[in-house]
Amino acid sequence: MKLHVKLSRVAAVVVGAVILTFAAQASAADTVLQAAGCKTEYFLLKDLSDAYNAKTGARLLLGNTGNKKAVELLLDQKIDFTFTCKPIQKLTKGLQLDPDAVSSWSSVAIAKDPIVVVSNSSNGVRDITSEQLTRLFQGKIANWSELGGNDIPVLTAHMNPKLESGVVMLFKEFTVGLDGQLDEKARLGEGPSMLGNYVSLTRGAVTFMGFNSYEEKYGDILAIDGVLPTRENILDGSYGLAATYYITMDGRSSEAVADFVDFIKSEQGQQATELNFIPFSE
Predict the structure, then answer these.
(1) How far apart are the C-alpha atoms of 266 and 260, rounded to whole Å?
(2) Fewest CB within 10 A of the end CB: N or C in the chain?
(3) Are 139 and 176 in contact (CB under 8 A)?
(4) pTM score of the predicted model
(5) 42 with 71: CB under 8 angstroms?
């Protein structure tokens, strides 16, 4: 009789644990988080959102509104968190926010987004300045000899803007500005492999792409201002052609936001980040 009672209690505990597990899964599956932010970081959040949904069933509704609009939405409590390319301290100063209104906010660094400039090996240039890089992709440098290289016409190439690539938007931020124009004569590609193969086979060609898309066969990576995009240089900030991405949130945010940030820091979150970016924390 006692054995039967003990077994019944064990069974009740097991059933209770299973019910709680299912309840937690159902609760996570019902979760919908809304976020908005940096137009280039949007692509990272899409990767993380897909991975988080696959693990928990929770959904993220993302808007690539830009930092300013996203901050306004969070101030109005219309979204759960923002994803920003600057920490809250710099946002407060740059957007002239009321420090008291964002006193409970914090930013968590989650990734680096580096761009590499790839040149055909015959061009004879290994290092250019930031100013030369801008002029190069504006079409204002016609021959590699102007940069100390060989007498070969410059042929720029980049991703087709119609693809709404985060790489193109980020490159423009670093060079001509989001409203600026890249060389109208540039060859347009449908992906980094197409661009890389074009550069490898074409004397005078040069392009840019995400760090993780580069393959040695494409050509030479150019140093910018004397700094090569090694992983170490990217993470310590000495390589200038790399953005740092943050999750910016109100300290009074829901537990669901904290769960998502914990996921980003987890092994699965880091793997999702590594698809196209470099995990980073401060």
Answers:
(1) 10
(2) N
(3) no
(4) 0.77
(5) no
**Distance between CA 44 and CA 37 in Å, rounded?**
11
CA 227, CA 100: separation in Å to the nearest integer?
Answer: 40
Distance CA 197, CA 207 (A): 11
Alpha-carbon torsion, ordered 229, 242, 165, 211, to 10 deg: 20
List, in order of start, the domains of the chain with CATH numbers: 14-112+243-279 (3.40.190.10), 113-235 (3.40.190.10)
CB distance 251 to 107 below 8 Å: no
Among candidate residues 45, 27, 26, the one with its CA nearest the CA of residue 35: 45
* Cα(242)–Cα(271) distance, integer angstroms: 19
Q: What is the CA radius of gyration of the chain?
A: 24
Determine the Cα angle at 243 with ends 248 and 89, to 5°. Answer: 40
